[in-house]
Amino acid sequence: METQDLERLVRPNILSMRPYSTARDECEGRPEIFLDANESPYGNGFNRYPDPHQKQLKEAVARIKGTSPDHIFLGNGSDEAIDLAYRIFCRPGIDNAVSITPTYGMYGVAAACNDTEFRTVPLREDFSLDEEALLAAADANTKLLFICSPNNPTGNRFPTWQLTRIISSFNGIVVLDEAYIDFSSEEGLLPMLGSFPNLIILQTFSKAWGMAGLRVGMAFASPFIIRLFSNVKYPYNINGLTQEIVLKRIETSGPETGPVIRERERVSRVLAECPGILKVYPSEANFILVKCRDPKGLYRKLLDNGVIVRDRSGIPGCEGCLRITIGTGPENDRMLHTVTSACGRENREEASSSGQEGESRNSTVFRETSETGIAAMMDLDGKGPSFISTGIGFFDHMLEQIARHSGISMLVYAKGDLNVDEHHTIEDVGIVLGKALAKALGSKIGIERYGFVLPMDESEASVLIDLGGRTDFRWDAEFKRERIGDMPTEMFSHFFKSLAESACCNLHVSATGENEHHKIEGIFKAFARALKMAVAHDRFPYSIPSSKGVL
Length: 551
Description:
Layout: H1 3-7, H2 12-16, H3 23-26, H4 55-65, E1 72-75, H5 78-89, E2 96-101, H6 106-113, E3 117-122, H7 131-136, E4 142-148, H8 160-169, E5 173-177, E6 199-204, E7 217-220, H9 223-232, H10 240-252, H11 258-272, E8 277-280, E9 287-292, H12 295-304, E10 310-311, E11 321-325, H13 329-342, E12 362-368, E13 372-379, E14 387-389, H14 393-406, E15 409-416, H15 423-441, E16 453-456, E17 459-466, E18 472-476, E19 483-484, E20 487-488, H16 490-503, E21 506-512, H17 516-535
Parallel strand pairs: 2-3, 2-4, 4-5, 5-6, 14-15, 18-21
Antiparallel strand pairs: 1-7, 6-7, 8-9, 9-11, 10-11, 12-13, 13-15, 16-17, 17-21, 19-20
Helix pairs in contact: 4-10, 5-6, 11-13, 14-17, 15-16
């Protein structure tokens, strides 16, 4: 299919429209004063509009996906790309789209929002694809064909040979949703994109990359289709903070699939032995579909025990089925214990993972003043990525030591009046991190509470911490240099003091040594280790770690 063939599929008003543009699109130089977009001129980190074209992020995505930026669209989740496909190709009230069933529900929702008929073709009983029936459902006004592979909620992946044959035979646009491809035993169709001009491939950062809260979806297609997507989308569809965090995540890590796949196989094996489970369907995703004797009863039992799964028993083709996302080992154990108990017997294999059950220990804190804008996210159990950006290089390096050596996931984004002084940024980061720590600790049930002495080459750093709720700060460390890197040494104690007061903890810090860099690095690492010890869950049954019975 050539570009002129693709043009006939596009709504005429979309082909002829003049896209929204900004003065910055038209500027080829590097402006220093921005008086074009009616923004606030007062810098707080969030006062300027983000890059509407996400150029830097697209270049990074292109590198990891083995394609070029002109083949990439980045959207507010994959749902934005799904909606844009309807808006670009389907004339309301005239054209239609075809998909399989059961599958992801947003294809049908987006069709309804765009006044487009949505036709569905059932999968076979074994969830395989009826290729002939799918193509037969299309007519002259069928512009879109949606296929999810691996499919949600069935979990199976359709053969590559079958998908390519459908794409070659269909006279419209095929949207292949590969949201779960990172968990599959085979790669997707992205390497074949150049062979199919009528193909749009959807992928996401929400699943294997662990960034569902940031809402970034990817669409890969021919440059012609990508230009249409860019023309129709809202100008600033992905905010600047999200772009920075995703870019940092791409540059420093990759998708996390191994533990999920191993847990998927373990959970499938245990569930298959339960009397109340009739069938566990094979999965190439990060979830499994389970057919139950009493799906409604088991669903309610799980809810009563604080476990949320997805009841799919009312969907044609999924009668009697629950869809269970694969969690951490302890989370899966809690689910398995509930299921096996409900089925009338215990299965000892459920205890093969390690960890404790307990409340979620994460937090998000924002702070905005006339001098700074700070955003921080923290997960005490290290379940997410870490990203540090304060504008002060050495400070970033030290904060990264906290994340690395504590095992705590930290996202810290700060923009402040560094043109005036570093004081406000460093102080406010300490305040926000302290608040995030206190918020993530929640009830503090089961924490060790106390924590550490650490040698750093010739230096020795001692950090004592008590998360019991009382506030006291002591600092015994002197520095001969005025700065280390680009950070004033006088601000080290001020940062920790701000953090301790905000977190409501006792923090005593001391350090000796000859090398100033080693001395402060030792303090940050010792603080991280002390924090790791203090927030750790006790191996024994949860209780308040206080003789008073209260913190």
